[in-house]
Amino acid sequence: MKPNIKAIARLALYLSVVVGLSAWWMAREVSAELSERALSIGRTIESWRDPAAGTSTIRLNGARITLTSVSSDDGVVTILDRFTGMCARNSGGMHEELHAMIARGAQIPEHVAEHFGVFRAQDGERQGTAACFARDADGGMSALLERVSRLAETGDLAALGQLRYVFAHRRKGASTTHVLTLISHDSLPIEQIFPASGDVRGPDLVQDVRPDQARRLVSAELEGTSQRAVFYEAQVDAEAALQSYDEALPARGYQRGDLSLVVDSLPAATRVYIKPDETLLIIAQHRGPQHSQVFAFRLSNGGFVRAQM
Question: Distance between CA atoms of 96 and 138, rounded to whole angstroms?
Answer without folding.
Answer: 10
